[in-house]
Design goal:
The protein contains 3 helices and 3 strands. The chain is an alpha/beta fold. Helix 3 (51-64) links the parallel strand 2 (41-45) and strand 3. The longest helix is centred in the last third of the chain and has 14 residues, at 51-64.
Length: 73
């Protein structure tokens, strides 16, 4: 997929104006990594995690991609 430049993509640093929402118990690191690598902006669903779980999973996403992503608390 090519890049689609919009205000959203410019501000979030993604290639497509698509946001993968932070669904609790679903928006795990693998989904976030897959979404951002495909060009969307992904959110890790950390609102349902303990602080230690959130820390570990944020690090997992950072290890899996160098693309920007969000974290929902």
């Amino acid at each position: 997929m090519g890049e689609i430049s919009t205000v959203l993509t410019q501000r979030l640093g993604c290639r497509a104006p698509i946001i993968q929402t932070a669904m609790g118990w679903v928006a795990e690191p693998s989904l976030v990594i897959g979404s951002v690598e495909a060009g969307a902006f992904g959110f890790l669903g950390a609102a349902v995690m303990t602080p230690d779980e959130a820390r570990t999973k944020i690090l997992d996403v950072r290890k899996g991609t160098d693309k920007p992503f969000g974290v929902n608390f």
